[in-house]
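U., I forgot to send this yesterday:
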Amino acid sequence: MLSRREVLKGAAVAGAAALVRGEGALFASASQPSTPVNFSVPANACDTHVHVFGDPQRFPFAPARAYTPEQASIAEMQALHRALRTERVVIVHPSVYGPDNSCTLDGMKQLGSNVRGIAVIDEKTSESALDEMDRAGMRGIRVNLETTGQSDPAIARQRFQEAVDRIKKRSRWHIQVYTRLSVIEGIKDQVMAAPMPIVFDHFGGAQAALGVSQPGFDTLLNLVRTGKTYVKISAPYRSSTKLPDYADVAPLAKALIGANPQHILWGSDWPHPASPVAHQPVTEITPLWQVDDGRIFNQLPIWAPDAELRKTILVDNPAKLYGF
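Result:
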């Protein structure tokens, strides 16, 4: 079993701080900001991308999961958002629980009216269960292809169409997709034809080192321009290894914002679950990345220097999409 003393080097894992090895060490807490926010955060700002990992005795992990995370509680998340001065949040159900949304729904219940959620479902999820989730504040379903390394456009097309068919009659819901640019290229016609908004996580999987001319990025920009899709400018450490500020992500962020600022969302990706480790037994704990969310949040004024533009991204766009 991995302890939280195992070392994750920052450059090697794109933003993780080292965890100290030593006998008897306690499990680390989920990361908290060490850098104060240096700009005026508008009222009702929203972090549109967090996860909650509860006590596994109460919320068991799915046997077919890709990794086993450390715990990250609602109390820790609330501390994060007090530091970031954000009042609203969207909890994205993580893949490790499969289609059992109990942990996410429990977190949403604790937080009340300033929270919305994104669910994970399968063919066994009933319409009555979706109705209950809607009443609880769920506003979409997630198609997660990237965590399991699924990059086959044919499979992506099938998964995407299944998602469309399941929620096409739910006017308040949308589909959130975690994938890469090559897959977005392969499903772009389905995205345009879908009767609901589509949201792409984490810069649409664009890689900062390849710049704005990388294959597939123009397709992402065009989808944003049409107003059909939203993109989360979130988790820059998944796009870049250029520590400490991921400066090479700025051209991607600015290009996406410039394409259609009304369809850009910001999210922290707290508590920063690490990618599955090759050849590691799934039952071994994969430590959470220790990320300074204050420092990352302070990149937003670089990407969007105008205060009204930041309000659009942090307040207006989430309010419209999630129904705050």
